[in-house]
Amino acid sequence: MNTLRKIYNNRCWITGIFLVILLATSCKKDDYYLDTGTIDPHYKGTILDYLKEKPFYFDSLVTIIQLAGMNDVFTKDTVTFFAPTDHSIQNTVEILNVNLYALGKDTIKTLEDVPPEVWKKYLSIYLFKGANELKDYPQIDFDLLRTYPGQNYLSYNNTVMNIGVVYGNANDVKYVGYRQLHLTYIDKPAQIMKAYTKAPVASSNIKPLNGVIHVLSDMHFFFGFSPFDFVNDYQIYKGE
What we know:
8 helices, 7 strands, alpha+beta, FAS1_dom_sf, FAS1_domain, Fasciclin domain-containing protein, FAS1 domain
């Protein structure tokens, strides 16, 4: 994994770095995220097996699962997994390296350089007990959150996450069009209307033997949702 050699002095610099990263890491995965078409949702294998079969999108994710010591969760437990792609992992690692370099610390060269506790904490944000499909979640309208707020759920590490389905419009008729699942990180769980980061799902209702996978779209930029929290936890667990 390449190390970024950029220094920032304030959040304005970081905003610029974000834009550079997002442009630089836009890879040729667009077709995957645009439309999955009609396919058989059932998969004759575990969640981990499914991810391993698609290394172009999930090779780093599979490595993180193994580093976090969560193989059994993804092969034996019945879970719903909102799968982030390697695109978001790369972005978060690059932000980590920007911060480490600016602080005069060694940047990471491989995913193994991150403490397993950090990987486990942030991986667990995307994981929920039980097998839930799109139809099992309530409606959310980000313009009318008081009316259609989705619902808060506890992830595997007890982080409060909001999950809801956006009902699209069709022929100028509200809520009768496509439906898209969203996983939302709430900075302040009691104030979803004020501070949240949403991650739309590109492919929903993939059904391996031990649960359900909803693959997040390329619009989910950062693994763990908050790269600055990730940086802070990295330093805490490294004792820096």
